[in-house]
Amino acid sequence: MDNSLQAKNARWTSLWHRLQTVRFEPLPSRDEVDRMLRALPSRHPGEGLADWLARAKPARRGVVVPFPGARFLPLAIIERLAASSGYEAFPLPEASMISPDESFRLSVKRIETRLELRVEALGSDAFEYAERCIGISGSAELEGLIAFLYLDAFGNGLTRIDDTPETRQALARPVLGLLEAPDE
Amino acid sequence: MSIIDRLTQDLAEILEDELTREPVNLDRLCLTILLLVGWRRSGDRPSSNPTKSASAEEWSSHGNEGGEEDDQGAQEEDKRPALFRLRERVSPFSRANPYLNGLLFRDYRQDSQYHEYSLGEYGCLRLHPEACRYVDEVLLLRRLELARSIGKNPTNMHRLLEYFCRQSRAEDGRQSSDQGGSHWRGTEIRREIDGAPREEAWFGPVADALRAQIKELGDKLSKVSYNRRAADGPYWLHAGPCSERVGEELNLWEVLVIVPKPLGPGFSLDSGFRQLLKAVVGSLNTRYRLLRGCGLVPEDWLHRDEPSMDHLKDLAQLRKLAWSSPDWLEGRREEAFAQAFAALRQLPKHNGKVGGFASFEAWCASEEGDAMLHRGCTREISWEYLIAGITEGASLDDPEGRDPFAPRDSDTGASEDFPEERLASSAGGTQGDQGGLDSLLAAPDTMAQILEDAGPRLADNPVLQAFFRWVLVEGRQWMGRHGLARQPAFQALLARDTRYAALSEKTLAVRLSVEASLLILDVRLETHPGPVSPALYAYLRRVAIEEQPEPVLFKDKSFKTLVAKEPTLNALSPEKLSAHLRRESLELLQTLFGAVGEPG
What we know:
The complex is a heterodimer. Chain A is an alpha+beta fold. Chain A has helices at 3-20, 30-39, 49-54, 125-128, 165-172, and strands at 71-77, 97-98, 104-111, 114-121, 133-137, 145-150, 156-162, 175-180.
């Protein structure tokens, strides 16, 4: 290999490596960091970052806040045709629920005192909604949100929420929607 | 540019932003660094149209084999936005944050698994699971031990403390009319056998912090530090008439606590400061980088003395060799390691041992061997991780032999000396002074050569050309105050180009990243001596770089035609075809981009 060819290869290899280190995200802004700081308790001396973050107070009871300024864009309303049991005011669905357009499957499982919600985007919607934030609400509004989760690269997501009358009521006619930040 | 260069640039900017404020808030600084490294913003999706469903057929509608794409004129141009929109929906995030693939350990959790913290009314904060550990245990709290080579000189961490003190705007007991400038300006740290503390009121907070650090450090000193202190005395910090003892070993957090704040503005652009910071960060990162290169989980191994740094270097080489074996990709990892072990043992520099083990069986039976075989990297990972893995362990952030400013570790994984004259001569330097491979791109005629190499593919695309010039050649930021994306001239270029004018900033970033990757691949392939089959080329472009789902490519008619023309591929089942193309792609990428810059 002559020198000029070697130089060309080295040049373009360097470009490749530099491309792998480009940061396309902006640095966290002052405003973003300050809003988080306001939501965090004072840090104890010597406290690890993970422990500090874990001490943050949850939102007010009954209010689910995925991120500031979130918008809820309904994607599917699941109508449960019949109750699974007549003994409870809002019984949990025994079988997985599929949205009318077959875009989503929602499964609910009770684990001790909590409910495990599993959302699967089906078919090509798995690509459409992969890695997006999906909310589960009792209505078509953000105010009815009972849970949110992020779908993975395959369009699947899982979360656990408290088993309360409010969440059971919402799951009687759940609305699945996309949660988006204000700038999207 | 290595990932450590990138981290250094970003850290310098973040440090200046916080340390020049009044009042300084170090918790805010830590949180900002944490967000830099591992935050997944909630709004990281460029698409906002939930009603538009993207089908597999849409992917397939762009099913021409990649090489034809650039030459198909207007009709193809019409299709490109749909293709890119789909690709951007599938995996935009890891491309946006280089630290996820290039810095953080990633092999033992699912790619998409993030820690979610509920921050009250703020909502959910999503962080990469390794980010907290990296920022806390590697960057902030890891103390650099003393290297034997530095003699009486201060360590880099001491020099960083000295540098910050010299930038201080804090009270120093002088009237503004006094001659000679601030006492802090003349801060010095040096060893003295007969030093004595001298304190005035303005020096009190720094003296208190220094004493508290020494108390905290206690007797937890390396043998080298202990012997050096006994021979030459402890370190003393002098500022004007005041002085106080400094601990033998410091971590970055302690430096930030001790420094008299606030600092004056502008230091983040000082190339001398950046080189010093890079040396510090490189030293802090060394053990973590090698563990990552070995596939050893930092959570288990970061704070242990064994394996030593030399053994870790051997083991990282072992894993790299095993990783490139066909056996590895086909799941026969033990065989891959066995062959790599046998090959490395033959090298004279190893003296018949690899990582301190005389036989493969002894390595398998060891704790580190068991961990490398069975815990690290036991699952398939994404293409972006694999591409980052091509440079794993011995690439641009490897300090040996290429970067004159890179750290030289002591035997225990520690600090090194940083010539003071480099700081003194650095004022007014440019940020492009990276040394090593980056110097290839620093030559004044580089852009002209790149344009000549690429021809009309780059010359006829002013937006991509600007991206190459500003970000890839000059090494400047894409985002941020001085980033290309915010430059009015660049925005004017965008507005004139219909291919880019309507794209959001995030979508544009992904688009340029993919287009640049494809162009670089094409140019490198032009000088590749061996033939590359059209099916392999299509797989490389569409799966490895554009990250289209593999099943979509396999259903594509034009791809099927390409496969049918190659008897060896046509005979394979879809599973074997997938494994074959994956292995061939990785080998080709390794050949094209992995070899340059690796040691001997």
